[in-house]
Design a protein that fits this description.
binds iron/sulfur cluster; TIM Barrel; binds S-adenosylmethionine
Length: about 350
């Protein structure tokens, strides 16, 4: 088979979506991502008891010199856009920690071919930055919100920030970043009792809420299958409380199955990568803050773009490199299978 010009892999999937991590730093310590708090230790106690003390945290902050500059990110986005990428999502770590983020938003908005520019954030710093981000051209935003209970929010994220995040969601709506999305990672024994209240919140606040299954991407590798609440279970619980009408999407690469709630404009979606993998339609690539391309969340190898943006590499050489890397994209993840190999980095370092 000859390799075509666009970013297509050997399984026929065409890449359209690039997730750009702008920092590996974070101001939260979510249990399912960067678990470092006492609450996380207590929650994972059975699992962590088998590990050397303290439990191993796999992430290592990258030195500032390793992190891509805005010029370097813009160049990579421009080259990727020339190869058919039309959707960019800025993420991290916590992207709002990166200084002058609106400047990057402005640069990427101006790249020809980029039709959709979104941001995923924990929302804590959004009140200070929201207006500038919207003015710079940000089109859509997703907030992470796993609990509506102040105490549980703190237990999960390691920070006292529920009020700030709720205020940020309100502000995003006021700024016209609609429809505002909220992501909730559901973990058994931690926040599964909040599934219905979270859906009610989405219903009342006109939001799009995505329930996400817990994936083995936490920095402590404390993930257990038993902690995953399968999407089907979430759905049957919601069906008992709400009238859910399935929303069909023409976009096969969409990760969420979606339902409108009670005839309202609000929606819930379920992203079930563990119990119902959707790898067959994956059109996503990831760029880490230190310039590595990852073709799958669960990749065990990464592909360094820094020599191209910091060395002598031409755009044409970068294109050829990207095509070659994408061609070898993993067919699927193997979560829960005996030969599953954990990803080489945790979610906060990869960029979710
Ligand atoms: N800090 C930002 C935030 O929390 O929205 C952006 C980065 S965060 C890594 C991106 C998304 O990944 C968040 O919605 C978070 O809930 C999700 N996430 C992190 N670890 C996860 C895990 N182990 N399983 C499933 N989703 C996870
Ligand atoms: Fe939580 Fe996002 Fe930070 Fe991970 S990167 S600890 S999900 S806020």
């Amino acid at each position: 088979m000859t390799r075509p010009e666009a970013l297509i892999d050997s399984h026929g999937r065409v890449m359209r979506d690039l997730r750009v991590s702008v920092t590996d730093r974070c101001n939260f310590r979510c249990m399912y991502c960067l678990p470092e708090t006492e609450a996380a230790h207590n929650f994972y106690r059975g699992r962590w008891a088998q590990m050397p003390s303290p439990a191993p945290i796999l992430h290592q902050w990258q030195p500032k010199s390793a992190i891509l500059s805005y010029e370097e990110i813009e160049r990579i986005v421009r080259v990727a856009a020339g190869l058919g990428i039309d959707k960019i999502r800025l993420t991290g770590g916590e992207p709002l920690l990166r200084r002058d983020l609106p400047k990057l938003v402005e640069r990427i908005s101006a790249v020809s071919g980029i039709k959709d520019l979104a941001l995923t954030t924990n929302g804590f710093l959004f009140p200070q930055l929201g207006k500038a981000l919207a003015e710079a051209g940000l089109q859509r935003i997703s907030f992470s919100l796993d609990s509506l209970d102040k105490g549980n929010f703190k237990k999960i994220t390691g920070r006292d920030g529920l009020e700030e995040v709720i205020a940020s969601i309100r502000l995003a709506k006021d700024l016209g970043l609609a429809p505002v999305k909220v992501n909730a990672v559901i973990i058994r024994g931690m926040n599964d009792h909040e599934i219905e209240p979270l859906a009610q919140f989405a219903r009342d606040q006109d939001l799009i809420l995505r329930f996400i299954e817990f994936m083995p991407l936490d920095s402590a590798r404390a993930w257990l299958k038993e902690l995953v609440v399968p999407g089907q279970e979430i759905l049957s619980r919601l069906q008992k409380c709400f009238q859910l009408e399935a929303v069909q999407s023409a976009n096969l690469s969409e990760t969420a199955k979606r339902w409108r709630i009670d005839g309202s404009r609000s929606e819930i979606g379920i992203i079930a990568p563990v119990s119902e993998p959707f790898c067959g339609h994956c059109n996503r690539l990831r760029l880490t803050a230190d310039g590595k391309i990852r073709t799958c969340l669960f990749s065990v190898t990464e592909h360094d773009l820094r020599p191209f943006v910091r060395g002598e590499g031409s755009d044409a050489e970068m294109e050829e490199f990207l095509r070659a890397v994408v061609w070898k994209k993993e067919p699927r993840h193997r979560i829960g299978e005996p030969d599953f190999v954990p990803a080489s980095r945790s979610m906060s370092c990869i960029g979710g």
